[in-house]
Amino acid sequence: MKRAYLTAIFILIIAVPYKILATEKSRITILATGGTIAGTAESASQASYIPGVISIDEIIASVPGLNNVAELNGIQVCNISSQNITPHIWLKLHTIIDSLFSNNLSDGIVITHGTDTMEETAYFLNLTVKHKRPIVLTGSMRPSSSLSADGPFNLFNAVSLASSTEASGKGVMVIMNDIILSADDVTKSHTVNTNAFSCPNFGPLGYMRDGKALFYRKVETKHTFNSEFNISKNTKLPQVEIAYSYAFSSGLLIKALINSGVEGIVIAGVGHGNYNREYAAEMERGYGKGIRFVRSARVFRGGVDKAAEEYEPKHPVSGIKSPQKARILLMLALTKSNDSNEIQRLFDQY
Ligand code: GLU
User: Fold this and answer.
1) Nearest to 184 by CA among 169, 167, 171
2) What domains sit in the chain, N to C, each tagged with a CATH number?
3) pLDDT tens digits for 336-348?
4) pTM to 2 decimals?
5) Which end of the chain is more exposed for a tag (fewer CB within 10 A), N or C?
6) H/E element, 33
């Protein structure tokens, strides 16, 4: 009798919470924006296709059992190729995510996105969404109609990652080809292969195996929950462009940018963020007109620090941020200040 009583207590203590845990799924919202993951081709083996065709419901239906991984809610934000992304879509994503998290309506976010500018949307959200809950971007390199489409497995991994407790507080992540990549360093580094993404400076954060997240490194830059950027009231973002540097660059492009009234210019410099005399003269003129410059590098790895060949302190350096990421950080920095020292502080911390 006593034994039966103890067994009943044991079952109550162990089995009931286990049952609750086993059935309590994370609430994951999938925000669909388009890209190849929503693309279709005329035949299953053809390389050319049209991105942004199928809907979020069709994408979810392409992953058998995805509803067993999490409680899913799909929202079609837009259905575009990501080269056509706009500040309006970024601000819309920010508003949706902020309101879902602030009102405790979602435990994690997955964004399906074209791969071309995925790293930029990821970095923008990494700097502006002030929450710890997971935000994961994914996409695909092959369209949904392909013989071995990579989208369904990428989506399965993304939903699994966004549901995992270990993903909390890690900042915005990209998952492609089983690799978990941090928004601070991720870049598209192959134009067509399914293994198209890498973190050239710091390597992957971890991997997905059997729907489980295995993390191997930490993110040291400031992001998400400890970001100081407040854009919830912004309806637009400062205009910042990128000026590419190359052998005997004429200065024509940078001159045109300065005359057009942009607020900031990132230099995609040669080597360790260098540029020629024509650029230097134009930058001097632009700085006098209130335009702020950041020196970045067209070189894939290593970044730009202050130990530069001709260090000019009034032009902040990007650190390891690529020109396209430096552009986003400069846009956000300019919402706060156009003081060069303050801009440099932000580049040192984020
Ligand atoms: N250019 C399209 C885009 O970025 C398709 C590329 C892709 O998603 O892989 O949306």
Assistant:
1) 171
2) 26-226 (3.40.50.1170), 240-349 (3.40.50.40)
3) 999 999 999 999 9
4) 0.92
5) N
6) strand 27-34
